[in-house]
Amino acid sequence: MSDESITVDAGSAALLVVDMQPDFMPGGPLAAPEGDTLVEPIGRLMASGLFRHIIATQDWHPADHVSFASQQPGRSPFDTIELYGQPQVLWPDHCVQDTPGAALHPDMPWRHATLVLRKATDPAVDSYSAFRSNHGPDGRRPPTGLAGYLRDHGVSEVFLCGLARDYCVKWSAEDGAAEGFACHFLWDLTRPVDPAADDAVRRDLIGAGVRLVESSQLKGA
């Protein structure tokens, strides 16, 4: 990561705040270590005026979601199975619709969000990325509609932050780059479920054409 400043054009840039929900923070069933430390700095960035377009994603699982280990007899959380021809990690029950742990964190300024995108609402299909769900029974990854929304609003650059670095933020950045957006991964404003995966995450993101940056590099136009 270089330390050069990055000018944010409020009209063509969007801030994507991924899954800032209590269930992904310490005390939750699928916690990213120190995930709660992001609440204040991401909230400050949301309120900074740098971004006209702020999109929040919200993991929003039905209680019988296929990715929950509780729905797979004889399986435990973090086991991996094959689902629709792809590896699927089985998770502890988390971000179940209408539970406190699924709410957007109450101490963040969500009034600045221009869109809240709920994902993983289909009980049969998991969804990490803000742009596409995971593979479904037909072998495809259905789009969420976010790419079209951003293009309709003149967005060409996406700055990503939130939880978790090694899953939902990473997949969103890779898919965003594949959709043709210039994607900037705010490394200091993410936290991983598995810190040991950081080197692999960096390699994958760089290989996908995603730029790794720090929030301190951002400045207004």
> What gap, in angstroms, lies between the N and C termini?
21 Å
Residue ranges: pLDDT <50 for 5 or more in a row?
none
Task: Provide the CATH top-level class.
Answer: Alpha Beta
CATH superfamily: Isochorismatase-like
Largest sheet: 6 strands, parallel
Annotated CATH topology: Rossmann fold
Could you characterize the architecture of this molecule?
The chain has four helices and ten strands; from the N terminus they run ββαββββαβαβαββ. The chain has one domain (6-63, 93-220): 3-Layer(aba) Sandwich (Rossmann fold). It is an alpha/beta fold and 221 residues long. It is 16% helix and 24% strand. Strands 6-3-2-7-8-9 form a six-stranded parallel sheet, sandwiched between helices.
List the helices and strands and how they pair.
Layout: E1 6-8, E2 13-18, H1 39-46, E3 53-59, E4 80-83, E5 86-89, E6 115-119, H2 146-152, E7 157-163, H3 168-178, E8 182-191, H4 198-207, E9 211-213, E10 218-220
Parallel strand pairs: 1-10, 2-3, 2-7, 3-6, 7-8, 8-9
Antiparallel strand pairs: 4-5
Protein traits:
six-stranded parallel sheet, globular, 221 residues, 4 helices, 10 strands, alpha/beta, Rossmann fold, two-stranded parallel ribbon
Provide a short characterization of the protein structure.
This protein has 221 residues and is of the alpha/beta class. It has helices spanning 39-46, 146-152, 168-178, 198-207, and strands at 6-8, 13-18, 53-59, 80-83, 86-89, 115-119, 157-163, 182-191, 211-213, 218-220.
